[in-house]
Structures are given as structure tokens and as C-alpha cells.
């Protein structure tokens, strides 16, 4: 058995790279669902075609799914459940004025397409005053028959709180449930993921500023939450993991777990750098 196992491990290491570039079709990559170590599903955000792209662990395009009947108003993240469904979050809402927030549900085997149309229970104005525009969404994941959404606050003018909402994973009209919120100092959330064992939640965050008034600088952090009860994720123990660094500023937008100790993060294209994917292993302190 051992002689058979060694070649398999070697093959996996060769085919899944620690760092790779994304193909040209994925310039504004905003969501990631890691089906396996050699199957990465991606989407672009607003303004791009309604397509899911599939790459291998080297960043080579191997498949795609086009939805000509849909419109990419502002697709922001991807997740999946244990029944073969992929969820597409069309809930980007920079101006906080959308009344057509949707999550598409697609089953790859049956090719059935459905959707959840939803609202937030605490939004009364479209849009609210600038300082209260915390109804933009860029990160979510599925866990135990629920979808967990994490809001992206307004950089610079907001309070740096992210709110945790839940929806059931059933198609139809819903009002989201507001579970909790958390203050992340000078950080706004651009992605979210849960580990395969359900013990760790990762929130991908960043802040943007200009050095000397003109040099762009993105500081990015992965927050890890553990030791929570049931799905009260934001009440868990919070630790930090720096995202992999680049010499030139980049904006991390996507995250998912490869296994219980490892995540992949991806950046969208900026004026200085092409989209890239990097693997990050969580530290011991993140897993306590």
C-alpha cells in the first residue's frame, strides 16, 4: 500500500501549486469555491458575463458554465452545499440601493437553476445615509442548511463593523436574519469561508490607503474564528493571519479552505499586478 501512496502524493503536489496566475478571462475575480485541490471554481464581479470558470491547481482553465438567461448585476462570491448545489451571490451593493438581491442555486448534475430573492430586516432606506451604508455583501458560505452572509462596511466613512446574516438554503423570497456583528479595526470584509470540519471560519479583509498621497497600499488580513457555539461564529475566539504578501499593492477578494489548516486566497487585477492565487497555511495560534 505504501508504494502506491507515495506516487499519488507526489502527483498531487506537482499538480496543485502554492502560487499561480489566473487566466485572462478572470481579471475581476471576486468569488472562489474550492471543489478539490485540483478544481477551483471562480466568478467575476459586476460588468462581466454570467459565467462560472473552473481551473485546475495550476490556474489553467479546464471548464466553464455559462448562464445566458442571467445577468451579472454584481456577482461577489461562490459557495456549495453537500447536495451538489453551487450558490452564486448576486448581492454586491456598493451604493446600498439594490432591491433585487439574489442568490442563485445551480445543481451541476441536474442543471436545475433556482434562486433566493431576499431583503435585510434592518434596511429601511435605499440608500441610507453614507455612514450607515453597511448593506454591501462580498462574502458568504453554506453550513448546515443555511447561508451565512458577512457585510462589507464602507471604507473610511463606515464604522468597520461587519454584520452576520443568515438565510435558509431554500429557493423563494426571504427576509434575512441578522445574527450578530463584529468590529474589525480598519478592515472591511471581501470574502468568507468555513473549514471542512466546521471548526474554523475565515474572513478575508483589507484596508486601502495612499502613501505620500499617491502610492497605493493594500493591507490585508485573514481573521480566523474558532470555539464558537453552533452558528454563532462571531462570538468565537478571534485570531489573525497575514495574507501572503506582494511587493506591489494588490486587493485580495476571494478565499476558500483547501483543508482544515490551509486556505487559498485570490486577488483581482489592479493597475500594477495581474490576478494571482496564493496558498496560506494557518498558524498554530489560529487553530487553538
Q: How many DSSP H or I helices?
A: 1
H and E order: HEEEEEEEEEEEEEEEEEEEEE
Q: Record the strand order, biggest sheet.
A: 6-7-8-9-13
Largest sheet: 5 strands, mixed
Write structural notes for this entry.
With 288 residues, the protein is mostly beta strands. It has a single domain (16-287), classed as Neuraminidase (6 Propeller), CATH 2.120.10. It is 5% helix and 50% strand. It contains one helix and 21 strands. It has one helix spanning 2-15; strands at 19-21, 29-36, 39-44, 51-55, 61-66, 77-80, 85-90, 102-107, 113-119, 136-143, 146-152, 161-168, 172-175, 177-183, 188-194, 201-211, 215-226, 237-242, 251-259, 262-268, 276-281. Strands 6-7-8-9-13 form a five-stranded mixed beta sheet, with no helix packed on it. The protein has a four-stranded antiparallel beta sheet with strand order 1-21-20-19, with no helix packed on it.
Based on the model shown, name its key terms.
288 residues, mainly beta, Neuraminidase, 5-stranded mixed β-sheet, 4-stranded antiparallel β-sheet, 1 helix, 5% helix, 50% strand, globular
Describe this structure in a few short sentences:
The protein is 5% helix and 50% strand.
Chain-wise SSE layout:
Layout: H1 2-15, E1 19-21, E2 29-36, E3 39-44, E4 51-55, E5 61-66, E6 77-80, E7 85-90, E8 102-107, E9 113-119, E10 136-143, E11 146-152, E12 161-168, E13 172-175, E14 177-183, E15 188-194, E16 201-211, E17 215-226, E18 237-242, E19 251-259, E20 262-268, E21 276-281
Parallel strand pairs: 9-13
Antiparallel strand pairs: 1-21, 2-3, 3-4, 4-5, 6-7, 7-8, 8-9, 10-11, 11-12, 12-14, 15-16, 16-17, 17-18, 19-20, 20-21
